[in-house]
Amino acid sequence: MARTGYLGLGSNVGDRQSHLRAAVDLLREAGVEVEAVSSTYETEPVGEVLDQADFLNAAIRIRTGLEPEALLDLCKEIEAQRGRALDAPRHSPRPLDVDLLLLGELELKTERLTLPHPEVSSRRFVLAPLLELDPGLSLPDGARLSEALAALGPGQRAVPSGSL
Questions:
Q1: Beta bridge partners of 39
Q2: Taken in order 71, 67, 164, 119, is the CA torsion positive or negative?
Q3: Distances (CA, A) of 71 to 1, 2, 24
Q4: Is domain 3-163 in CATH 3.40.50.970, yes or no?
Q5: Residues noted as catalytic
Q6: I need a labelling partner for 1 at 20 to 30 A (CA). Which of 12, 16, 67, 136 fits?
């Protein structure tokens, strides 16, 4: 059964735009239907390692028959193909980050994967491109992402910077 899902893309090493474009192309080559791609956003690092270059972020809406863990495996494989060291410290600089944010109405928690992504409603660099794709998007529990973005307050710079 095919589901609509959302992936977050990010890069802050090398040709950031090229890495994001490659992720879209590699997903398509793997049979994932890419329905829409947001603008790119220039964003400041958040998380555990703040002393690093700014990120270029985007979100994509996909349609896939892959089960959640198989889709996660594909995302990790694409990251590795673009040079990400999968054993690097969390939140460290990386050529490509492909995060599974939402997959249909699924709510899931395994050792490797939590859906919706636990930080989907607290990160401006995730919310801005997601809401560009689907302004009325809600989490499976009904929480509206537009309200989550409005509640963030100042900080977490995310400036539209172009398109893929």
A1: 163
A2: negative
A3: 14, 12, 14
A4: no
A5: 84, 94, 97, 99
A6: 136
Indicate the residue type of 60: I
Cβ atoms 125, 22 nearer than 8 A: no
Classify 125 as helix, strand or coil: helix
Distance CA 86, CA 49 (A): 16
Query: In whole angstroms, what is the distance from residue 116 CA to residue 108 CA?
Result: 7
Instruction: Read off the pLDDT of residues 55-70 as tens digits, 9 standing for 90 and up.
Output: 999 999 999 999 999 9
160: confidence class by pLDDT, cuts 50, 70, 90: very high
Name the strand (E) or helix (H) holding 25.
helix 16-29
Q: What are the pLDDT digits (tens) for 10-50?
A: 999 999 999 999 999 999 999 999 999 999 999 988 877 77
Name the amino acid, one letter, at 147: E
d(CA 74, CA 146): 29
pTM over the 0.70 mark: yes
Count of residues making up the chain: 164
User: Above 90 in pLDDT, residue 73?
Assistant: yes
